[in-house]
């Protein structure tokens, strides 16, 4: 099954086949990929990674939908894209790669918004096909970005 490039991409090299919480595993697996992207280019690595993850998600989604059904749990490239979006401000606002607190906070908020789907995230998920699959993760990523940056600002102000 992993012989198809679109399945391999959509499942994030097979992570989507993990039996429990494949979206959470994919989000966690994205963090070291972001680190290596930042090492390659501190200013453009993470934004480029997020953009590529979005494009790859759109490219692979239809094939994964055909193979596994509507919004399949095996398709986790959307989680990769949403999780990457959380750390785009790293390149723009921070001079170094996030510390563990920043990574954990961004991961935590993304998973909360992606799982609970508040504030319109659930409505975006209802868009047809690949746009619904990706849209809810991008909005969850945007909300997680805002919350993460607020927490980091509060931490810097108070401590």
TrEMBL record:
Transmembrane segments: 36-59
Domain annotation YutG/PgpA: ranges: 10-150
Protein keywords: Membrane, Transmembrane, Transmembrane helix
GO terms assigned for molecular function: phosphatidylglycerophosphatase activity
Origin superkingdom: Bacteria
Record flagged with keyword Kinase: no
Pfam family, one: PgpA
Any one biological process term the GO annotation gives: lipid metabolic process
SUPFAM superfamilies in alphabetical order: YutG-like
Any coiled-coil regions, as ranges: none
Family annotation (PANTHER family): PHOSPHATIDYLGLYCEROPHOSPHATASE A
Record's protein name: Phosphatidylglycerophosphatase A
């Amino acid at each position: 099954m992993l012989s198809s490039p679109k399945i391999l991409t959509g499942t994030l090299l097979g992570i989507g086949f993990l039996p429990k919480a494949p979206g959470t595993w994919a989000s966690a697996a994205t963090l070291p990929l972001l680190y290596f992207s930042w090492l390659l280019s501190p200013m453009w690595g993470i934004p480029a990674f997020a953009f590529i993850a979005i494009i790859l998600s759109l490219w692979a989604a239809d094939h994964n939908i055909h193979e596994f059904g509507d919004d399949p749990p095996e398709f986790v490239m959307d989680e990769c894209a949403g999780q990457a979006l959380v750390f785009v401000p790293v390149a723009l606002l921070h001079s170094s790669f996030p510390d563990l607190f920043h990574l954990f906070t961004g991961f935590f908020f993304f998973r909360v918004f992606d799982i609970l789907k508040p504030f319109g995230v659930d409505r975006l998920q209802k868009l047809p096909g690949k746009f619904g699959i990706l849209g809810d993760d991008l909005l969850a990523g945007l909300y997680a970005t805002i919350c993460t940056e607020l927490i980091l600002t509060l931490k810097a102000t108070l401590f």
